[in-house]
Amino acid sequence: MSALTPIDQVIRQLCRETGEPDYKNYDTILSHVRGALVDLQLYVLPSVKTTMVKLNRLNNIEWPADCVKPVLIGLVRNGRTCNISVDSGVSPALDCGCGSMTEVEKNIQETVQNTDVDPYLYYGIEVYGQGYDSIRACTHDKENRITNLKFKLLASDQVQFTYISDGISGGVSHVPVEAETAISEWVFWKYYRVSKPSLSDRGRINYKEEFTRLRKFFNDETLEDWIKAIRRN
Amino acid sequence: MTKSELVGAAYLKLTGGYPNTDSTTWWEDVDLLIAPAINYVMSADYFISKRDEGEEKIIQPLFLQSFKLPVTVDPITKKHKSKLPKRPMAWPKNRAVPFVGTSFDNQFVPVEQSGGAMQKYFSGLKKEQTSYELEGMDITYFNLPPLLRSGNVLVKMVVSASDLNDDDEILLPDGAEIQVINLMVDFFIGQKQLPKDYYNTNKEPNTQA
User: Fold this and answer.
1) How far apart are CA A114 and CA B77, in angstroms?
2) Per residue in A192-222, pLDDT tens?
3) Where are the domains of chain B?
4) CA–CA distance from B155 to each of A177, B69, B99, B190 (Å)?
5) CA B98 from chain center: how many Å?
6) Could you report the per-residue pLDDT of B114-157, keeping only the tens digit for each?
7) Which terminus of chain B, N or C, has fewer Cβ atoms within 10 Å?
8) Which residues contact A33 (CB under 8 A, 6 or more apart)?
9) How far apart are the C-alpha atoms of A27 and B106, rounded to whole Å?
């Protein structure tokens, strides 16, 4: 068993299961699979992407089209990265570990301190968990999909932008095997909403179960747990 | 049976076994109406099969005919297109054309009715798929692989009898030739309009018994 299944295979299988062996409802099923992926990737299988971004003339980072929520924004200077914005959901283990600063990090800190930003920026594990943008080096504007930096970057600085992607804007060619059942149940839920409400209800209930099972699957950490979960499929 | 054999059998029955030049019905009359009769029987068989198979909308593979079609480029829209050589049966959702693809089982996926406008939203999810839209006799392709753009596309379909030649074999459900002949006779002698169900349930063939 491979860890990924082509999305085409999943859709064709669902077309057949819904009574169209010649795939006449391919696009409808595809749009429902897309819905399932969005739901699962937002809540169960977050797809985290990292990209280097350029600032616009107003010192703003424009979010990529598929960005749902920024997670980390890192300032890259001379090959070292320091986080200037950390989402509350991120584990402190991802801290850059700048407790003992190098020359480069001191340099960055000075740049930032000159603009009244929290001086604990690079020591502040304790500020993690205090919510969105707890270190106040930048502000996120969700409406306009931009992040405004509160200090001026050096010409050589780069910005590393890590975000939760919707997982589909860049295209999807494969889906995780462990999510296949959940996707199927979601499709039955949506596909039969009008024509067969009882089947649709069954799909909704089953999807909830699969959703929970999938979440548990991803929270389990040992290899044995993963193998057991795969075999349960 | 070929089309001319079927016409001959119906004509023989119409003329009471003695075809002659004084008959009020001519061979050409029968020939003209044989196609609608065949199509009627085929459609009835399709709807009966659909009902009997429950959820699954199948096409009898024995009725399919295959054609290899060259791909052309529309000079204005630059879209890749093919033209069907014969008219398929007019069944819901183009089900009379169950296969468009390559000879190596790479089956293209159909675009649903007026779904061309939606394709741009699906492009990220259908990167590796070729889609086709069938309207009238024209097939328009989306995302056709480069190697196929100068090659042939395989199409399998249930052909409407109106496009058949005299010596073409008529693909009918076994034993349905009698139904076609009886239909022809009914057309001309006017004793019965159209027969109801062949299962004698006195219902239209495409409704639940």
Assistant:
1) 58
2) 999 999 999 999 999 999 998 888 877 765 6
3) 3-57+161-189, 65-157
4) 33, 7, 6, 39
5) 10
6) 888 888 888 888 888 899 999 889 999 988 988 888 778 999 99
7) C
8) A7, A10, A11, A14, A175, A183, A186, A187, B125
9) 17
Among chain A residues, the shortest Cα distance to B157 is held by: A22
Q: What is the dihedral of CA A117, A122, A126, A129, to 10 degrees?
A: 70
Per this entry, what is the length of chain A? 233
Chains A–B, number of C-beta pairs less than 8 Å apart? 60
Closest CA to B108 of B118, B98, B123, B116: B98
Taking the C-alpha atoms of residue A19 and residue B58, their distance in angstroms, rounded to an integer, is: 8
Query: HEC profile for chain B?
Result: CEHHHHHHHHHHHHCCCCCCCCCCCCHHHHHHHHHHHHHHHHHHHHHHHHHHCCCCCCCCHHHCEEEEEECEECCCCCCEEEECCCCECCCHHHCCCCEEECCCCCECEECCCCHHHHHHHHCCCCCCCCEEEEECCEEEEECCCHHHCCCEEEEEECECHHHCCCCCECCCCCCHHHHHHHHHHHHHHCCCCCCCCCCCCCCCCCCCC
Contacts of B47 (CB under 8 A, 6+ apart): B205, B206
Residue of B nearest to A17 (CA): B56
Do B125 and A22 lie within an 8 Å CB cutoff? Answer: no
Is beta strand B131-135 parallel, antiparallel or unpaired with respect to B109-110? parallel
Which residues on A lie below 8 Å from B118 (Cβ)? Answer: 27, 31
Average pLDDT, chain B: 84
Choose from B60, B63, B109, B127 for mutation: most chain A CBs within 10 A: B109
Residue A24, both tokens: 């006449």
Residue A89 to chain B, least CA–CA distance (Å): 29
Q: How far is CA A114 from CA A59, A61, A127, B22, B143, in A?
A: 16, 21, 20, 112, 54
Structure tokens at A202: 């069954």
What radius of gyration do chain B's Cα atoms show? Answer: 21
What per-residue confidence (pLDDT) applies to B150?
Answer: 79
Segment (H or E) for A139: strand A138-141
Reference A184, options A233, A128, A113, A111; nearest CA is A233
The answer, for B129 touching chain A at a CB cutoff of 8 Å, is yes
Contact of B205 with chain A, judged by CB distance below 8 Å, is answered with: no
High-pLDDT (> 90) share of chain B, % = 21
Distance from CA of A42 to the nearest CA of B (A): 18
3-state secondary structure of A39: helix
